Amino acid sequence: MDIVSALRTFLRVAETGSFSAAAADLNLTQPAVSRQVSALEAHLNTRLLHRTTTALALTAEGERIIPMALRVVEAVDALGETTCAEGAMASGKVRLTLPAPLGLYMSDRLTGLLERHPGLHVELIFREEPSDVVGEGIDLEVRLGPVADSSLICRRIGWTTAFLVAAPSYLEGRIAPETPNDLSGHECICYRRAGNGRSWSFSNGADEVAVRIAPRLIADNAVAVHRAALAGSGLAVLSHILACPDIEAGRLVNVMPDFPPTRLPISVVYASRRNMPLRVRTVLDFLADAVSEDPLMVSTSVP
Fold first, then answer.
1. Apex 185 CA angle, 184 and 186, nearest 5
2. What is the pTM of this model?
3. Cβ neighbours around 25 below 10 Å, total
4. What is the CATH number of domain 162-255?
5. How far apart, in whole angstroms, are the C-alpha atoms of residue 200 and residue 213?
6. Helix pair angle (100-107, 222-230), 10° resolution
7. Is CATH 3.40.190.10 correct for 92-156+265-296?
8. What CATH code would you report for 3-83?
9. How far is CA 32 from the centre of its chain?
10. What is the pLDDT of residues 10-45, one digit of tens each?
11. Residue 188 to residue 168: CA distance in whole angstroms
C-alpha cells in the first residue's frame, strides 16, 4: 500500500464528507477510494470512518489522525517541491469552467501552456452559472462578482471591464443615452449571469447606479448577446474582450462612456489548496498570468 496516497485519499474524504466527491476530486473511482481508506484502516488497525448507506462520519480515531496525516502529506509535498527540477512538467487533465468571453481569451493563449507541458490536458467548459465544483469534479472555476460559497477557496486574479455598446444601425435616428437614467425607452439585450437578467449597474468612479430594465431579449451566453448587438437589436453590456475589436472597427459604439458598467472581481475558485496537484497549480498560475497581461483586467481603475 502507498501510505501517502492512502492518507491523501482519507483526508479528501474527511474534507468532502463523501467517497464520491473525493473520488471526483482525485480522479479516481469510488470503489478505489473506498479500498484505499479500508487499506489505511487495516494498516493502522483502527476504524477511521463510520459508514452507513446515507451518511459518513469520522470516528474519534479518525479525528485524531487528521493533524498527523496533514503533517505527513505536507512534508512529502514540500520534499517533492524541493527536489523537483525547475520547470517540472505538469501532466494529467484539468477541468476548467469559465464564462464565454474569458474562455475565448484563454483559448487564444493555451497553445503556449500546452507546448510547455506535453502531458497536460485542459478541458474548457464555457459556463455562466456557478458549478457544483466538488460534485462535478471541476478542478478550477473562474467566477465574476462576489463568491458566496464559503466552502471554496477563492483567489482573486483581476477585474472585469465592460462597455455599454450598440451598433450604429440601432443608434440611427435615436438619442444615445448619456446617463443611466436615459436608458428607459431603449431596447436592451440582457446577458443573464447567475440569475441576474433584469438590472444593469454603472459607476462613474464616485457614484454607483443600478438600473432596472425590461429587456426584450435575454441570453445566458455573452457571445449570443454580442452577436445580437452587432445585428442592431439594441443596447448591450459586453466584456471588453468581445467589444473592443468592434468598437475600434466601428461596428459597435461605446455608449455612455462617462458612466461605464460597474467592474466586478474575477476570481478562481477550487475545492482545497491542500495537496493541489502540479497540473492544477500550473493551470491556476497560467490563468493569473494571462489576466495580468491585459491592462483592462489588472486594477480596479481603468486608465
1. 95
2. 0.69
3. 25
4. 3.40.190.10
5. 7
6. 90
7. yes
8. 1.10.10.10
9. 28
10. 988 888 888 888 888 788 888 998 999 999 999 999
11. 15
